[in-house]
Amino acid sequence: MTHTTARIAPSLLSADFSRLGEEIRNVVDASADWIHFDVMDNHYVPNLSIGPMVCKALRPHTPVPIDVHLMVEPVDDIIPQFAKAGADIISFHPEASRHPDRTLAHIRDNGCRAGLVFNPATSLSWLDYVMDKLDVVLLMSVNPGFGGQEFIPATLGKLAQARRRIDDWTRQGGHPIALEVDGGVKCDNIAAIRAAGADTFVAGSAIFGHPDYRAIIAAMRAEIARGDTLPQQ
Fold first, then answer.
1. Which of 15, 84, 150, 211 qualifies as a FRET site for 111, CA 20 to 30 Å off?
2. Which burial class, exposed, middle or buried, applies to 121 when counting CB atoms under 10 A from its CB (0-12, 13-18, 19+)?
3. Is residue 1 part of a domain?
4. Which of 33, 38, 67, 135 is catalytic?
5. Mean of the per-residue pLDDT values for the chain?
6. The domain that contains 148 carries what CATH number?
7. For the whole model, what pTM was predicted?
8. Number of domains comprising the chain
9. Quick check: is 232 in a domain?
10. Looking at 33, 67, 88, 182, which residue is catalytic?
């Protein structure tokens, strides 16, 4: 298929936590499309990060969607807190919910777009039953819990599978679903990730570790455009 959408979502996990508001304003000024907000509970994943109070504090600093990735267990109770704090998109891992279908409905009932997150070893078969409640499919290309990891190459084949499922869904009259990838996304692999079918790209250290956010995001967009010319997976 010919891609039209390409969103870049800088991950706050790699930002300077001493000045998060300024970091968000700077990446949005540099043309970021979403802000990716990683929530870790030291339970589902072995790390602890940020919660609804930080989301609420940052909401006034950005006009673009805040894309909350819940790496927590359980998930249902915290969803309304993030919705009230200004989240636009809330995604979770199916293994962390007793009833993923109900959790997706819960996210939408709270006024947010709903996403399902797939770890490297999580089967895409969950999608068979919940496409009607999904707005985002997020594939982890690293094992969640820490920033700065290397991209797992097998994710490319999994992305292509997810792309086919989403395309089949929309061809049958289904609503649009974003295909997002998170983990080790850099300028030197983003073209291949695009060719595999991704339309939304989470990048942490690749952006926040660069001295010029505008230049690195522009370079990523150029590589995404090149990815549109590569053979499909």
1. 15
2. exposed
3. no
4. 38
5. 94
6. 3.20.20.70
7. 0.95
8. 1
9. no
10. 182
Element (H, E) at 8: strand 7-10
Is a pLDDT exceeding 80 seen at residue 103?
Answer: yes
* Domain boundaries, position 22: 7-227
38: annotated active-site residue: yes
Give the burial class of 187: count Cβ atoms within 10 A of its Cβ; 0-12 exposed, 13-18 middle, 19 or more buried: middle
Please state, in angstroms and rounded to a whole number, the distance separating the CA atoms of residues 162 and 174: 15
Q: Are 228 and 19 in contact (CB under 8 A)?
A: no
Residues 107-158 have pLDDT tens digits of: 999 999 999 999 999 999 999 999 999 999 999 999 877 666 789 999 999 9
Q: At what angle do helices 20-29 and 213-227 cross, to 10 degrees?
A: 50
Respond yes or no: is residue 101 known to be catalytic: no
Is the residue at 2 inside a domain? no
CA 127 to centroid of chain Cα atoms = 16
Which uninterrupted H or E stretch holds 118?
A: strand 113-118
- Give the three-class secondary structure for 32: coil
The confidence score (pLDDT) of residue 1 equals 44
Amino acid making up residue 185: V
For residue 24, give the H/E element and its range. helix 20-29
Decide: helix, strand or coil at residue 182: strand
Provide the pLDDT for residue 149. Answer: 76
Nearest CA to 73 out of 39, 114, 120, 119 is that of 39
- 233 occurs within a structural domain: no
> What six digits make up the tokens of 165?
């499922």
